[in-house]
Design goal:
2 domains; alpha/beta; 404 residues; single chain; eight-stranded mixed sheet; five-stranded parallel sheet; Rossmann fold; 23% strand
């Protein structure tokens, strides 16, 4: 898994830096090419000479080489890396990463890194538990950084608790898992619907809903990161196209979404229907702005929109269909009913009763239900992490965080 991979190992100034030498050795033994970037404080804990000998490359630390004045390009390093691992990551380095405080080579390299970044925090238990650290860690997670959780145990301070850097073997495993996961959907064609639909009433008004599109966009991003050919059919949302998404089709109404999806259905291997499609649309769209004209009530006649999920379910030819169900009550039975009615393979259930779930939030809490009725429940996570759980579950990858 690691053979030939370019890994930037970022080392910041904590006692656990001594373990970075072992981590480096393990990575090199697995065939990775490793470039060490160390912070000025890191050098107080482990010498560049040791790291240069183990990696077979000069260690990068300063923006300029002291003797020649040569500029070290963090941009080149960021582009070179297939993975950047920051281990140990101190509270200070995590804070700088989360806030873009680019005052050393490690942070500038982080900001230039195009591929995945992984962080193995190491600090005292109180520093780890501090709201500031937790806030910064949450920001990194949201930015897509993989956090290799610190373990509980004896700390350099003599105290015992959570904050001890994960052992080098555990960090190597996390790196291998990452590269393995990146290949899960290689060669697969994945179509995702996302966002709301707007059903026009007249030139200035529409019927819509509060869907932000974030969940569907996170699924598209995760599928692309795992090597899939992704088509994202998006309702009206202001979100940027995630990296690696091959095709984005912007639509407004349910009918437009239906057309875009059905046209591309035959080519898809997996379809995830995360859009909140309006069930009804005005029977007629007025060409001109409807005037109030003194009336105290107004009637709007609505007609049923096509059910995209059900249409795909009826004409399934080997595709895996994944729907969503946002429910307020009788969640599981309603979701199961939808799954059967629409001939889906999986349904992702979120309950509006969960404060961490629902529209416009950055987090979601889901239960994924299979056709056979197996349920996988997950704790509240960022939408990107939920996307990873959904893909792991539907592709049969190991379910590490949820319970089955
Ligand atoms: N869906 C769809 N086309 C529609 C309506 C829904 O593709 N016209 C999809 C959604 O993207 C979602 C699933 O069907 O994956 C369930 O959506 P939901 O709105 O909960 O289903 P409905 O059948 O409309 O049920 P309800 O009566 O609860 O609104």
């Amino acid at each position: 898994m690691l053979k030939g991979k370019h890994i930037v190992l970022g080392i910041s100034g904590g006692i656990a830096a001594y373990k970075a030498a072992y981590l480096l050795r393990l990575l090199v033994k697995k065939g990775a090419e490793v470039q060490v970037v160390i912070t000025p404080n890191g050098k107080e804990f482990i010498t560049p000479a040791t790291l240069a000998a183990l990696s077979g490359k000069p260690v990068v630390s300063e923006f300029f080489a002291a003797n020649t004045g040569e500029w070290h390009s963090h941009v080149d390093l960021g582009l070179w890396a297939d993975l950047m691992i920051v281990a140990p990551a101190t509270a200070s380095t995590i804070g700088k990463m989360a806030n873009g405080i680019a005052d050393n080579m490690l942070i500038t390299t982080y900001l230039s890194a195009k591929e995945q970044v992984m962080v193995a925090p190491a600090m005292d238990l109180d520093m780890w538990a501090h709201p500031s650290t937790q806030r910064n860690v949450a920001t990194l997670r949201k930015d897509g950084v993989i956090i290799v959780e610190p373990a509980s145990g004896e700390l350099a301070s003599g105290l015992t608790g959570k904050g001890r850097m994960e052992e080098p073997e555990g960090i190597v495993k996390a790196a291998e898992d990452y590269f393995r996961r990146r290949e899960t959907l290689r060669g697969k064609r994945v179509m995702v619907t996302a966002g709301p639909t707007y059903e026009n009433i007249d030139p200035v008004r529409f019927i819509g809903n509060y869907s932000s599109g974030k969940m569907g966009f996170a699924i598209a991003a995760e599928a692309a990161a795992r090597g899939a050919d992704v088509t994202l059919v998006a309702g009206p949302v202001g979100l940027p196209t995630p990296d690696g998404v091959k095709e984005r089709v912007d639509v407004t109404s349910a009918v437009e979404m239906y057309n875009a999806v059905t046209q591309r259905y035959a080519d898809a291997d997996i379809v995830v229907l995360a859009a909140a499609v309006a069930d009804y649309a005005p029977a007629t769209i007025s060409d001109t702005k409807i005037k109030r004209e003194g009336a105290s009530t107004m009637e709007l006649q609505l007609v049923r929109n096509p059910d995209i999920a059900a249409t795909l379910g009826e004409s399934k030819q080997g595709q895996t269909l994944v729907g969503f169900a946002l429910e307020t009550d009788h969640e599981l039975s309603n979701a199961m009913h939808k799954l059967e009615k629409k001939n889906l393979d999986w349904i992702v259930l979120n309950s509006l009763r969960d404060p961490e779930a629902g529209f416009m939030k950055d987090t979601n809490k889901v239960t994924i239900v299979s056709r056979k009725g197996e349920t996988h429940s997950f704790p509240a996570k960022t939408k990107r992490e939920v996307a990873a759980d959904i893909i792991d579950t539907i592709t049969g990858n190991k379910d590490e965080n949820g319970k089955t």
